[in-house]
Amino acid sequence: MITPELKERFQEDGAVVLRSVFSDYWIEMVQRGIEKNLEKPSKYAEWLNTGENTGTYFNDYCNWKKIPEFQEFVEHSPAAEIAGNLMECEVCSIWMPVDPIPLDSTLRLVRGSHQWGWFKPRKFATENDYLPQILPDSYDSIPVEEIDSGKHYILEWSIEPGDCVVFHMRTIHGAAGNSSSTHQRRVLATRWLGDDASLAVRPWEVSPPLEAVFENPPSIEQLPTIWRLQK
Ligand SMILES: O=C(O)CCC(=O)C(=O)O
């Protein structure tokens, strides 16, 4: 499933698309998980609405241990093996839609930006930086104007259920949102860490908050090992 060429592309571009890697069994499992999540959102859930009759963006975090379908997906689907084989180390996200997603509402990623350095994330709701003040020599604001001007190559793929996009967590990414008033755009995003991942302190309130993931005091050892390369 993961060829050396694909691995190289992931390392260079910071994102790749994989086609038909999840069977209907996993797609339906995740769909059921999302339905349960919508019925019983966690305290971290947010609903973003930009105006009347424009639909809603629902977002929730850290539910994989609370919703059995998500836990099953994390522990037994091909996701862990995909993440482990592609990145070897570091950190990646698997963005797995369970509805068809056309180009105009798909995830957009700035090719190679995982190698640019460190940026302040921006809030989904306001598009403001998590931390408004300037931090010299540490974190830059995302160069939105530069990206919008077309200076950088944007990776974007239309998606069918069963496909996924795997991206390095530092790759700058965003999406226009769902332009359809008739079709849902449901996605499960899982985050995967390699052996060399470490817990870092940020000068802003991180999302999700650390207490959603870790017991106090937080430590990386609290995270379970899901997959190991067989040597
Ligand atoms: O699905 C989206 O619109 C955003 C996803 C995203 O930002 C992420 O998974 O990190």
CATH class: Mainly Beta
Amount of helix:
10-25%
Give the distance, in angstroms, between the N- and C-terminal Cα atoms: 18 Å
Strand order of the largest sheet: 1-9-4-11
Number of continuous helical runs: 6
CATH superfamily: q2cbj1_9rhob like domain
Topology as a string of helices (H) and strands (E): HEHEEHHEEEEHEEEEH
Overall pLDDT confidence: 93
**Rg (C-alpha, Å):** 18 Å
Bound molecules: 2-oxoglutaric acid
Give the class from helix and strand content and strand pairing. Answer: alpha+beta
Quantity of strands, as a count: 11
How large is the share of residues in beta strands? Answer: 15-25%
Cofactor: Fe cation
InterPro entries: Phytyl_CoA_dOase-like
Protein name: Phytanoyl-CoA dioxygenase
Pfam families: PhyH (PF05721)
Tell me the layout of helices and strands.
Elements: H1 4-13, E1 15-18, H2 24-39, E2 46-48, E3 57-59, H3 68-76, H4 79-87, E4 91-97, E5 107-110, E6 119-120, E7 140-141, H5 144-148, E8 154-156, E9 164-168, E10 173-175, E11 187-193, H6 210-213
Parallel strand pairs: 6-7
Antiparallel strand pairs: 1-9, 2-3, 4-9, 4-11, 5-8, 5-10
Helix pairs in contact: 2-3
Structural write-up:
The protein is an alpha+beta fold. It has a single domain (4-222), classed as q2cbj1_9rhob like domain (Jelly Rolls, Sandwich). 23% of the residues lie in helices and 19% in strands. The chain has 6 helices and 11 strands. It has helices spanning 4-13, 24-39, 68-76, 79-87, 144-148, 210-213, and strands at residues 15-18, 46-48, 57-59, 91-97, 107-110, 119-120, 140-141, 154-156, 164-168, 173-175, 187-193. The strands form 4 sheets. The protein has a 4-stranded antiparallel β-sheet. A hairpin with an 8-residue loop joins strand 2 (46-48) and strand 3 (57-59). Helix 2 runs antiparallel to helix 3. The radius of gyration is 18 Å and the shape is globular. 2-oxoglutaric acid (AKG) binds at residues 93, 95, 107, 173, 175, 187, 189.
